[in-house]
Amino acid sequence: MSHKAWMKTVPTENCDVLMTFPDTTDDHTLLWLLNHIRLGIPELIVQVRHHKHTRVYAFFVTATYESLLRGADEIGLRKPVKAEFGGGMRSFSCEEDYIYENIENELYFFTSQVGCGGAREVGQGCGDAELQGGGDAGQGGEDAGMPSVRPSRSVRHSRGGVGRVWGGSQPSHLPPSPPADEICDYFGVKIAMYFAWLGFYTSAMVYPAVFGSILYTFTESDQTSQDICCVVFAIFNVIWATLFLEEWKRRGAEFAYKWGTLDTPAESIEEPRPQFRGIKRISPVTSAEEFYYPPWKRLLFQCLVSLPLCLACLSIVFLLMLGCFQLQELVLSIQELPRIIRFLPKIVLAVIVSACD
Questions:
Q1: What is the DSSP string of 294-357?
Q2: Do the Cβ atoms of 151 and 120 come closer than 8 Å?
Q3: What are the CA-CA distances from residue 268 to residues 76, 125, 154, 261, 298 (Å)?
């Protein structure tokens, strides 16, 4: 299907992951893969759909609630505990599943983001072994083209729901604030934390904007008055930046506690990039199979590629900044120019900084 067509479709309510296949994939390959998934991974529920216009086959894959609970136990997923058992956050355990909030309701215990990740992890667990043991059928699947796998979303956490909350809950003349909880349910903690910070930062910028506008309005044209206002605004910015950082530490900790990632290292909620290359080994920490990339190779790339490129970019930015300062001195030396023209070098510097970032 075309990209726009997928944007307009509504996924099956109980679908976690959607696998689509090219229209050239033969029935023998599809049936082989379907049987191997159903027999080899009984934790997955697979439903087959066919689009009559594009002749595209799709597998709607869903993980059972019990398998997601076992997976949450294995990875130590932190979930909120009921108030009568002490409250707070705790790593999930199947042996004491009754102490966790919403454990009775599978629609609310796991977010759609966790459900998609869990279903995909279950499916990837034996994917390599099945393809290696598939014989001619496995070769047929490669010739037909690899399937396109994408996360689906439940109706409760649909993208349209996030859009309605974000765009339709406030008057049109006010900028809507990001719905952090809804974004977390749909996109995950990492994206939600970014939008939470972005909304907090945008709101905090109102104070220096208002204070700076007042200073600019009442500043006299003489140099002494401008210098005094510059010092006052600099002191205000120092105080504002300090308060901003301290307040965001508190706000960010609140979000992390609410979403169960307060004591979780950042790398544990990030997924490995598909382009990551390395050798397979047994982890000395978890005794699980993992991809390992030697640290000396990473250090070599940083010294020979990353560091020279960063130094070159910094040098270019420094030279452009010096050029803007020279232009500022030239503009100030010409008394006949209008006052608005004297702000031109500062505007150019701001544009250069934004572009070079």
A1: -HHHHHHHIIIIIHHHHHHHHHHHHHHHHHHHHHHHHHHH-TTS-GGGGGHHHHHHHHHHHHH-
A2: yes
A3: 11, 18, 24, 9, 20
Q: Is the pTM of this model over 0.70?
A: no
- Taking alpha carbons only, the member of 191, 213, 203 closest to residue 243 is 203
331: number of Cβ within 10 Å: 15
* Residues in Cβ contact with 114 at an 8 Å cutoff, skipping those fewer than 6 apart: 68, 72, 77
Contact indicator for 1, 54 with CB cutoff of 8 Å: yes
Q: How far is CA 87 from CA 75, 81, 228, 315, in A?
A: 21, 5, 53, 53
Is the Cβ–Cβ distance between 180 and 191 less than 8 Å? no
CA 248, 273, 114, 84 torsion: positive or negative?
A: negative
pLDDT in tens, 173-195: 445 567 888 888 778 788 889 99
Residues 6+ apart with CB under 8 A from 203: 177
Q: What is the pLDDT of residues 250-281, one digit of tens each?
A: 999 888 888 777 765 555 556 667 677 788 88
Alpha-carbon span 155 to 187, nearest angstrom? 14
> Which two tokens mark 67?
């398998």
> Encoding tokens for residue 288?
């699980």
At 98, the amino acid letter reads Y
CA distances in angstroms from 155 to 64, 158, 230, listed in the order given: 17, 5, 54
* DSSP states along 138-151: HHHHHHH-PPEEEE
Spatial CB neighbours of 263, under 8 Å, sequence gap ≥ 6: 78, 89
Other CB atoms within 10 Å distance of the CB of residue 13: 12
pLDDT tens-digit profile of 34-76?
Answer: 888 888 777 778 888 877 777 788 888 887 788 788 878 877 7
